[in-house]
Amino acid sequence: MYKLVKPLFFSLDPETAHYTVTGGLRTFLKIWGSKKLMKASFSYENPNLEQTVFGVKFKNPVGLAAGFDKNAEFIQEMASLGFGFIEIGTVTPRPQPGNDKPRMFRLPKDGALINRMGFNNQGVDVAALRLKYFTERDGLVVGGNIGKNKTTPNEDAVNDYVICFDKLFDYVDYFVVNVSSPNTPGLRDLQEKEPLKHILNTLQQRNEKHEKPKPIMLKIAPDLTDSQLDDIVEIVVDTRIAGVIATNTTIEREGLQSNASLINEAGGVSGKPLAVRSTEVIRYLAEKSDRRFPIIGVGGVHSAADALAKIQAGASLVQVYTGLIYEGPQLVKQICKRIAKKE
Question: How many domains does the chain have?
């Protein structure tokens, strides 16, 4: 079915297509019997899929990566596609429009996207309000991906993360600290050892004041060197955060086959070209840390085999985004079936 409508969606600007699809899904789910139909079509339940990671129970290990639902607008709609967890954001303290359009580009020959969205979002207050009134979770885990505003200098970045952490605390099951997007100037500088430890330690101090602290994950770039990954392992252990999400988009362009005009667009690459490197990072972190913390694998998951490769490399959970766009909503069910069989 998706193969029939995919050319129509791909004829639209990527952002237009995004809101056309999510808006259409929202409308469809208002029809009597539609939720039951969606569950039968896209959900797959099996006890082998259930697991508890960083103290949170997941009904299945396949999640929607951050960036798709920045403002917590489409949780119910995306949950109908069979996801075990959904990560909203990246949200920032204040609303911001993001970078100028066009800012997302398809690379069909590569099965990839380039995006330079720039943390466009309606602000953490809006996301928190939507999450407050989202009560039909039915076992769905919701994560909150948090970042800093573009105009906030790096020396004050910790304050932005604290604001988002405090406002989302009651409404999400885990947090993700995003310091790895290539589309906010200077943001990746926060991956350096000292500023990163400062942010994570500050959040942990606030976290531990709560009776039931929330897991805090760190999302990292695929472009880090081995020595930088060694630092990441040390930082995660020292700050006692829950784990790592590997990886964000890449700034590398090597091996891309699409038109040069597209390849040279600024932004981060996601999709198939990222698959090998993100899995390498997962394996490196898992081995170096002796699996002392969980890893969520993301980057280039376009098939059940891709997801399984990340799990075999050391990931406990996986996330999809670009693969969903290229392969269609049946991807989640395909991955869950393969994992349940433990092949």
Answer: 1
